[in-house]
Amino acid sequence: MTVTNNTPGRGVDLRGAALRYTEMGWRVFPCKPKSKQPATAHGFKDATTSRGQVESWWDSKPQYNIGVCPPDDVVVFDLDHSTVVEGFENEFGPLPQTLTARTRRGQHLFFRVPAGVRVPTTGEFNRAAVDIKTGASGYLIAAPSAHPSGGRYQWVDEDAPIADLPDSLLLRFREVTAVKAAPKPAAQPVRTSDVVPYYKAALEAEMVAMATTAEGGRNRQLNTSAFNLGQLVPHGLTEDEVTDALTAAARSTTGEPMTDGEIERTIRSGLEAGMRDPRRPDDAAKGSSTAASSTPVVTGKPDADKGAGNAVMARRLVVTRGSQVQMQVIKWWEPDWIPLGEVTLLAGREGLGKSTIACGWAARETRAGNNIGYLHSEDSRAHTVAPRLAAAGADMDKVCFFDVQTPTANGSNSTATLSLPADLSLLEKAVIEHNITLLVFDAVKSFKDSSLGQHDDDVRALLEPLGQMAARLNVVVIGLVHFGKRESSDTGKLILGSIAWSQVVRSVLAVAEDKEQDRLIVTNTKANLSPRTRSAGVRIVSKTVHTEGGDSEVGVAEWLGDTNDDARDFLNQPEPVKSDDELDTHDYTPDLKASWLARYLAAAAKAGERVRPNDVIAYGRDKGHSRASVYRLFPKLVNAGMAESVDGEGFPRIVYWRWIDETTGPVHGEGETTETTGADLRKQGETPAVTRPEDETTGKTAPGQAIVCTDSAVVSVVSPNPTHTPPDETAGALTADSPGQTDRVARALANAQAKKQAVA
Length: 760
Hints:
globular, 24 helices, 4 domains, 18% strand, Prim-pol fold, DNA_primase/pol_bifunc_N, 11-stranded mixed sheet, Bifunctional DNA primase/polymerase domain protein, alpha+beta, 24 strands
C-alpha cells in the first residue's frame, strides 16, 4: 500500500496520495489545510472514489488535508496519546502487526472485522481516549496530511497489511452487543397518568433544542439538555432514554459531525450533574424553587399527550419576584480581588511568577488551618510545586494533590489528568470529603476536556459548571491563564483563546512586570463585585528548601504593599525597536554556529537539559536580546539543520528547543559564555526538571474513574537535579585545532569582531 513519501516536509504530494487512496477503494474528501475540518459543505458525506472529483478538489487547493472513510469491513481505533496506546496494548494485547498511522501524539490502528460482527460506538466501547471510526459513521485524517499542531500524519509501515481483528477485541465487541440487546426494565414513573406525557414532552423539547443548535454551540446545548433531563432521572425517567434521545439529536445536527466519544462524554457529564440536583415533574405547578433552572427547560405538566406539538407548548417561563430573592453580602477571601464562592483568574505572560504567587496564597490558607487542593499540569510535583509550597510556608499536611485513576483489565490503575466538566462530580466529591476550602488550577486550560475547543461556548462549558460548584460549596477557585504576545491594556483580549475566559468569571487579576523597580504589579482589571480597582506590588525572591537530594533554591512571593500603579499600564508597553546596527550586533552573526543562541542550546544539550522557548527568552533578555530577535534567530538555526523544536511527553503538550548539530557543536564568540538554563533562574535560581515524572504523564478521562487525593506530606520533595552543574560553555566548541575547521573558525571570529568594530 505504498501511498506517499513518509518523510515530513520533503516532496509531500497530497493530491497524489489522495488519488492513490481512491485506487485502493477508499472514499476521499478534502479537509481544510492543517485542519480536521471538512472543506466541503456536507463533510465526509461528500467522500468519493471518483478520480475526476478528487483531482478537481486538490487542483483547486493542493494544500488540502486528506479525509478518508475506511472500507466497510475495517474498524479504526484512534488512540489519542502514547500512554493510551500503552494502556490499550496492556488490556487487549499482544496485538498483531497491522496497518498503523502515527498521529501527533498517538496512533490509528486498522483492523478487518469479520462479517456479521457489529462494531460498537465509541461510547459503547467505553475506553478512555479511544475513539472508534468506521466508514459508515466517521472519517480519519490520512497521511501525509498536516496536523493542526504541526508535523504530519505518517504511516508506520505503509506496506503493512490490515490484520484481522484480534480475539480480545472481538470478545469486547460481542460483550457490548450482548449488553445492548438485553431487555431493559421499563421506567416506573411516579404517576403514570401525569408523568409519562410530561417526560415525553421534556425529551422532545430537549431533542428539538439540540437538533436545531448550530455548530459552535452544540457541546454546550448538549450538556444543558442532559442536565435538564438528568434532573428528572431520580423520579422515573431512565438514563437510557435520555442518552438514546440526545445521542440521536446530536447526530442530526449540521456542520462537522460530533464524534461519538464527544457526545458520550458530554451527555454523561450533564446527566450526572442534573441527577445531583433533582426536580419532580410537579415542582413547577407547586411553585417549588427546585423547578428553576439555569436555562429554559420544561417546567410544567402538559394537559394531555398531544404529540410533538407539546415540545414547544411545554416550555414555560418561570417568574420570580424580587421580594422572594434573599439578598446576600459579598464575602471576600482577599479584599477586592478574590471573592468566596467564585472563580478568579490570575492572568499574565509566561515566566513572570503566577504559579509562585498562587502557591503563596495556597500556603496562607493552610496556615489558617484549612485544606487546599492544588491541580497542576505544567510543573513537576516533586521538583517544583511541592518545594514552592513548602518555601511559602505551607502546612504540607493540609495540601492535597489530585490524580484521576481508571482501573484496567490487569488490575492496575491508569493515571490521567482531570478533565472538566466531565470529571466535575468526582472533583466535587473530593472537595467535600477532604473539606477543601481553596482550589488552584495551574493552568486551568490544561484541565479542559479534549472534546471542547476554543470557541466561546466551549470555554463557558468549562467555566460555568466550575463556578456553580464554587458557589454550591462556597470555596475559592483560582485559575491561572496565560496572556498572548500582543501589547494591549484590555486584559480580556490578552488572554489566549476565547474572550469568554474573562466574560464568565467575575474577577480577573492581571500580572505585569515593572522592570524599572524590579517588581510585579497585580491589578484587578475585571472587578464586577468590587467597588474599586486595587493594585499591589510583589517581588519573586529566592528561598532555600531542604529536599531529599539536597538544598534547592525556589521562588517565593514577597508582597510589597498596595500601589497606585496599574498593571495595564505596563502591559501596553511594546518591546523597544532596535536599529539595524543593534540587530546586527546582538542578533546575527555571519556564522550561525557563532550566535549566542547556538552556544546556549549546545551547552544545554551537553548538560542533558531540555529548554523551553521561555527559558531562552529569559536568558536572552538578560543578555540584551529581545523576544523578537529570539524568534528571528531560532528559525535560521532550524533551517540550517542545527536545531529543532520537539514535543515533550505528557499532556498538555510542552514544546522544547533542542540543539541537533552534535557532531560539530557551536562556535563560541569572543568573550561570551553560556549559563545555566531554566525558566525562573533569572529571578529565583530554580533549576528546571530535566524530565517529567512518569506519574504525571497524562491521558484523558473515562467512565468509572476516581480522583485520588494525595496529601502533600507523602510527596517526596526532590531536588530538581542533585548532580546538576551549569552547562560547560565549551560544550562542543569548534577550536582552531578541530580538523578541517581552522579556516571556518577564524573567518567567523574575524567577521564578528569586524562588525563590533564597525558599530563602535
